[in-house]
Amino acid sequence: MSFPSVTVIIPCRNERNFIVPCLDSILGSDYPENQLEIIVADGISDDGTRDLLLEYCSRHPSIRMIDNPGRIVPTGLNLAIKEARGEIIVRIDAHTEYAADYIRQCVDTLIETGADNAGGAHRTRAGGYLQSAIALAFHSPFAVGGARSHDVDFEGWVDTVIYGCWKKDRLLELGLFDEQLVRNQDDELNLRINRSGGKVYQSAKILSWYRPRASLTSLLRQYTQYGYWKVRVIQKHKIPASIRHLIPGLWVAITILLALAAPLSRIAALLLLLDIGLYGAANFSAAVYTCAKSRNLKFIPILPLIFLLYHFGYGFGFLRGLIDFIILRRGAGDQFTKITRESARSTGDPD
Q: What is the pLDDT of residues 273-321, one digit of tens each?
């Protein structure tokens, strides 16, 4: 059996706590070593990540580190793709660990299905009470709107997948990743694939385990950025937003307007109470159902707050994106152009 050459690309910045298990899981791959190279595009890390990478490069000839002065994911991905020698590109996230057959399953799925992009679903691995609760919410349809990428059992054609595996020539033909997008660059590339007549396939055999945010503040910042940059994708491609993307922003807008009007209008005050009551009831019911289904009732006290941060963060970000990109036609605000996963040294948050 012949194996096509593969380049694994890993964008990272300040991943001191996670780059070692990530690289170890890739080095433990069952894919032929002589057909595999690993390129890490480091965004000028300042938390010790670079020292760890240099150590791994000295011990493993298959690993190369390149600088990513842009310090965001899409610039790192594009630099690594241009440097890649492999026929096939497998994109890896530093915050994730991978099954031994991950690369082989990606390549097999890509070739057997004829897809333009192949990937797996989000699985999570967490430590500690709060991160475990965030991971539980991560798989709840109430939090993420039923996205296929969160359904670990789904197999078939989809709009988008996490990370991805492509033929290098196809990526170059598509124009690589959009470097203007701090977030949602994966979804936007998959949108271009679908709009050009290509296809994206999700396989239940492609296994990886993502470590979600471990603090409430970083979770809120993350989903605020997701909502914000989704508007830029909608604007770029002139496509209507889906109901799943509109609902959080609509709810946040209605709640804010009612809160502002409540002191001046009894009707607005009553509607605000109704709004809060209905959302609170739905939120708490979803939390109880999610915890009962997973047999983790200990997360009931915190899960409603986590759901709220998912919804409010995404909704507020979406509204701010509408203001910046659609209404005022201006560039992104500074707070939306920086990664939300800060150095573990400076924040105490391993994410």
A: 999 999 999 999 999 999 999 999 999 999 999 999 999 999 999 999 9
Cα separation, 223 vs 311, whole angstroms = 8
- Rounded CA-CA distance 128/336 in Å is 28
Residue ranges with strand state E in 48-199: 63-67, 88-91, 96-98, 117-119, 156-158, 165-167
Copy the structure tokens of residue 75.
């610039």
- Report residue 351's pLDDT band, with 50, 70 and 90 as the boundaries: very low
- Which residues, 6 or more positions from 298, have their beta carbon under 8 angstroms from its beta carbon? 129, 291
Rounded to whole angstroms, how far apart are CA atoms 152 and 149?
Answer: 7
Amino acid code (one letter) for 124: T
- Beta strands 88-91 and 6-12: pairing type? parallel
- Enumerate residues 6+ apart whose C-beta is below 8 A from 124: 135, 138, 139, 209, 210, 211, 212
Q: What is the pTM (predicted TM-score) of this model?
A: 0.88
Distance CA 182, CA 224 (A): 12
Q: 109: which 2 tokens?
A: 């799925």
Cα distances (angstroms) measured from residue 181 to each of 51, 62, 129, 226, 339:
28, 30, 32, 10, 11
- Closest Cα to residue 82, out of 176, 174, 179, 3? 176
CATH class, domain 6-120+161-210, is: alpha beta
Query: Where do the structural domains in the chain lie, given as residue ranges?
Result: 6-120+161-210, 216-347
DSSP alpha helices (H): ranges in 180-263? 185-195, 216-237, 243-261
Q: For 7, which DSSP code?
A: E
Rounded to whole angstroms, the Cα distance separating 230 from 88 reads 28
242 band by pLDDT with thresholds 50, 70 and 90? confident
- Our measurement of the distance from residue 21's CA atom to the centroid of its chain's CA atoms, rounded to an integer in Å, reads 19
